Amino acid sequence: MPRCPSNNTLLPLLRKLSESLGEQQAKNELRWLIEHARKEIADGINIQQRILAQSTEHRLARLWREQPARSTDEIEREGDRLSSVQRTWLRQAVADRTERHKPLQYIIGEQKFGMANIIVRPPVLIPRWETEEWMLRLAELINTHTTNAREASATIPKPLNILEACTGSGCIALGLGCELADDSARILGVDVSADAMELAMDNLAFNQMLLSNQVQFHRADLQQAVHLLPTQLPVGEGGWDMLVSNPPYVTPSEYRELDADVREWEDIRALVPLPPGTADPQHVSEKDMDPSGMAFVEQLAKLAKELGLAGESQRDDKALHMGSLPRLVVEIGSTQQAQSACQIMHDHGFSATEVWKDMAGADRVVLGFFKQ
To answer: Which domain of life does the protein's organism represent (predicted)?
Structure first.
């Protein structure tokens, strides 16, 4: 017997999303919006209050992971399970997604990143699965070396001092702070953006109970002359051991081709390396931009050298054998950039480099080592 049509049907929302995103992506995104509405939207409760008050239990699977989309019939039945407030929120969310090109993560307000739950809001860069992937791999590498060092030494090695440049939402610093072995690292996330610093501090408070290592955030402009920076970067005993970053590396030509949900919402400073001292990021002439997208990577290599990372460790504690761990870790966006980053690192004193691919098979991370 045919199902009677419901006034609560969600099919018009699915059609609207499909016109903008394509049917498969529309079904996936509508599923996430429905699930979020059912869990987080209640009568008289502001969504931001719900996000900030939620527990640290990881309720959502990673948005990037492919999962079977609901069928049209299943989506239609969902309308009967939503309150009027939830349906109103859902209609507004679909309008934001299709008419304003608002990213799904900004609508939902959070993104899982390893063990951490990261609050996201514009214009701070949304954490990507590629970045999460290499952060987890790096954490596993550090943990293996930490375990070996602790087993080989009668004393516990001092925590690693890790500097994260261009921290944005704080996702990498907080991800490492959760994933690394207890008290094995002290992590400082640095960014020039006031919006990023405010969000990173919110995320620090939001994930405090999950952290097994000290994480702090500090505002600084890393595009200054590198000899001025060490005194502006508070460091623990022993100096810096590692610099990690997802820096801006999108080329100007690539930026022109990005979808509106990136260009119109996320801070261009987190995507494209702009000239130092840029006062108005939204009105920089393309002729003044680095066509290779590698300017910030080179600045980080200079900073790493200034901090002593492209040389022998200055630590008294040699138990961790820093030569077997990377000193500089940077995300990049192409094979050509990977080759350029390797050359930049060699030019600035790193004796060895390594390239990691992401799950899609693309060159994604370049690691610089100092090995005697």
So the answer is: Eukaryota
